[in-house]
């Protein structure tokens, strides 16, 4: 919520200015002001202010929301978001993200597609048991959802995974556009309707009281057919109807009309919640989502940072902040239960775990979102922040640099580091803080000035790393134009044993990677390698990202196409030495892949297999 300022009607001077911290406060009452200056004795007036009335998250009923202005946020980062190439997360990382989403205040967490692989089933089950039974701010307990195609095997797997949550949901889908029915499903309209109806009924019959149905590619489907099939699944027991613009084809006015017409023409629609799921192929996912909400949708499906299939999904942070910033004025008073001060931490966590970097100019969470370089803009900001900022960075959990007055250096202690990290939107303590502190001290010995970007890079590299199978201890390289590069690498395994290997290569990074391969003995293909300087200067920290694929072929089933896809694993590293940064990233990616392999072995599932 933006700061609230009241100006005197004659002088224009500010009289009241404050920024409410509670995201559910709403403007309802009037503040009567009468100036003490006799010159303005006849200029008493009233100011609408925020006070006392608190919008609380309504009690959860699957097919009903008591407050007509409340919008449920359905996050599918762990399912649709993970379909992005290279975005594979380990079970631990998925659990961490799910906990953060619950802390953020997400109403429904789509934890995965349990039928895609045994690993995904176990991850969803773990999230259902731990996050689905947790109690978060103001007593919030998130719904845990599993995706399933319209067949009994998928639905059984989804229920097996989510049934442990206090509020379990099954989300099943089938395509309804002519192109999908004719070429992908090879089914008639009647067959599709019967399959949808019977599978929704089946999901209800096995004990799930919260069933969501999606007509895939609804944006290109015949509206009359949509009304018919949606009416049938309502009769079969569906509690939420999700309307997906699967290929990002519609424009906002068109999508809003589609939602309005579904509400007007679908029999029984008053007994269910209408939802949106908008892809970003034309860059319209956020606009389409908001148009759907204005037309009556009361559940919005989104992902952190907008990650997802192809061009991604509607971004949670964009949709939520749009509702928070403009909800009262132009969006019909719509509001959510999201605690926006956890947005930045959620964004950084997903960025690091998925390996998908956020572009600097990304709305809300990009590095440049609250940066001002133009002289005219800087002048305006110095005079009044609202001149060029419609939302405050503090609203998403970002405190401006140097507001605390803390400047970090080699003499700084843990408390100063923790205070600075908290200012940047991160909350860490215990072992994570200790590990970060010693990395910070190491860099501070070599670098005179530690910037916020340096700290964020170290934070990401130290805290958002996968559970280690191998840990980098030392790297030593020799390189130049006089001969082959050589590298010596020391790794420590999970039992604390040291392993040392030497190798040669075409360059120092190649030599170091080959030395790591000799120790780990797991054949992989390096698909991507990229490096960026975190800050300016010769002493900048280097941030590296790699993407690998195991030659033994970890696979899973694609949720929409049913095709078998090869899993890839990303890793990130940060250090002032580019070789060390590179090796840390490579070892991180290997740890992800090997943790995934261990999970498969634990469940007696052979590599390369997938549950269809």
From TrEMBL:
It comes from the Eukaryota. It catalyses: 3-methyl-2-oxobutanoate + acetyl-CoA + H2O = (2S)-2-isopropylmalate + CoA + H(+). One of its GO terms (molecular function) is 2-isopropylmalate synthase activity. Its EC number is 2.3.3.13. Pathway: Amino-acid biosynthesis; L-leucine biosynthesis; L-leucine from 3-methyl-2-oxobutanoate: step 1/4. Residues 71-344 form the Pyruvate carboxyltransferase domain. Its cofactor is a divalent metal cation. Keywords: Amino-acid biosynthesis, Branched-chain amino acid biosynthesis, Leucine biosynthesis, Metal-binding, Transferase. The keyword Transmembrane helix does not apply. Belongs to the alpha-IPM synthase/homocitrate synthase family. LeuA type 1 subfamily. This is 2-isopropylmalate synthase.
């Amino acid at each position: 919520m933006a700061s609230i300022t009241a100006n005197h009607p004659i002088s224009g001077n500010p009289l009241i200015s404050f920024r409410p911290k509670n995201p559910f406060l709403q403007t309802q009452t009037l503040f009567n002001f009468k100036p003490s200056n006799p010159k303005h004795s006849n200029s008493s007036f009233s100011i609408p202010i925020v006070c006392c009335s608190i919008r609380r998250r309504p009690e959860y009923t699957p097919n009903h929301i008591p407050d007509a202005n409340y919008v449920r946020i359905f996050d599918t980062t762990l399912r649709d978001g993970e379909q992005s190439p290279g975005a594979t997360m380990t079970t631990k990382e998925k659990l961490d993200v799910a906990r953060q989403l619950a802390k953020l205040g997400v109403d429904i967490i789509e934890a995965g597609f349990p039928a895609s692989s045994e690993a995904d089933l176990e991850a969803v089950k773990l999230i259902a048991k731990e996050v689905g039974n947790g109690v978060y701010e103001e007593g919030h307990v998130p719904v845990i959802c599993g995706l399933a195609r319209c067949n009994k095997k998928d639905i059984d797997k989804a229920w097996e995974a989510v049934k442990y949550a206090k509020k379990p949901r099954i989300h099943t889908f089938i395509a309804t556009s002519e192109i999908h029915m004719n070429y992908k499903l090879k089914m008639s309209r009647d067959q599709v309707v019967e399959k949808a109806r019977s599978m929704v009924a089946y999901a209800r019959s096995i004990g799930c009281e919260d069933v969501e149905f999606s007509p895939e590619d609804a944006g290109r489907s015949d509206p009359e057919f949509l009304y018919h099939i949606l009416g049938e699944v309502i009769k079969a027991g569906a509690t939420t109807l999700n309307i997906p613009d699967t290929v990002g084809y519609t424009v906002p006015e068109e999508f809003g009309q589609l939602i309005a017409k579904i509400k007007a023409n679908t029999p029984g629609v008053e007994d269910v919640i209408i939802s949106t799921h908008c892809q970003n192929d034309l860059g319209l996912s956020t606009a389409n989502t908001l148009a759907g909400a204005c037309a009556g949708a009361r559940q919005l499906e989104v992902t952190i940072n907008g990650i997802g299939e192809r061009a991604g999904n509607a971004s949670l942070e964009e949709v939520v902040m749009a509702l928070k910033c403009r909800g009262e004025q132009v969006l019909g008073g719509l509001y959510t239960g999201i605690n926006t001060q956890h947005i930045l931490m959620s964004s950084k966590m997903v960025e690091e775990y998925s390996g998908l970097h956020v572009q600097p100019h990304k709305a809300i969470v990009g590095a440049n979102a609250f940066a001002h370089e133009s002289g005219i803009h800087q002048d305006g900001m110095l005079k009044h922040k609202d001149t060029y900022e419609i939302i405050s960075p503090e609203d998403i959990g970002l405190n401006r640099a140097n507001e605390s007055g803390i400047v970090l250096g080699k003499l700084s202690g843990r408390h100063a580091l923790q205070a600075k990290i908290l200012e940047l939107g991160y909350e860490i303590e215990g072992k994570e803080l200790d590990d970060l502190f010693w990395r910070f001290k190491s860099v501070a010995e070599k670098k005179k000035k530690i910037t916020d970007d340096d700290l964020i890079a170290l934070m990401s590299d130290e805290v958002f790393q996968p559970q280690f199978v191998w840990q980098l201890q030392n790297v030593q390289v020799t390189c130049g134009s006089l001969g082959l590069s050589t590298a010596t690498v020391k790794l420590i395994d999970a039992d604390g044993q040291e392993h040392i290997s030497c190798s040669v290569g075409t360059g120092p990074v190649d030599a170091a990677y080959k030395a790591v391969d000799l120790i780990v003995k797991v054949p992989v293909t390096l698909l991507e390698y990229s490096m960026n300087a975190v800050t300016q200067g010769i002493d900048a920290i280097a941030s590296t990202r790699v993407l690998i694929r195991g030659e033994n072929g970890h696979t899973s089933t694609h949720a929409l196409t049913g095709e078998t896809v090869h899993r890839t694993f990303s890793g990130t590293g940060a250090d002032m030495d580019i070789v060390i940064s590179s090796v840390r990233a490579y070892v991180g990616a290997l740890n992800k892949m090997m943790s995934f392999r261990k999970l498969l072995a634990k469940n007696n599932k052979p590599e390369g297999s997938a549950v269809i």
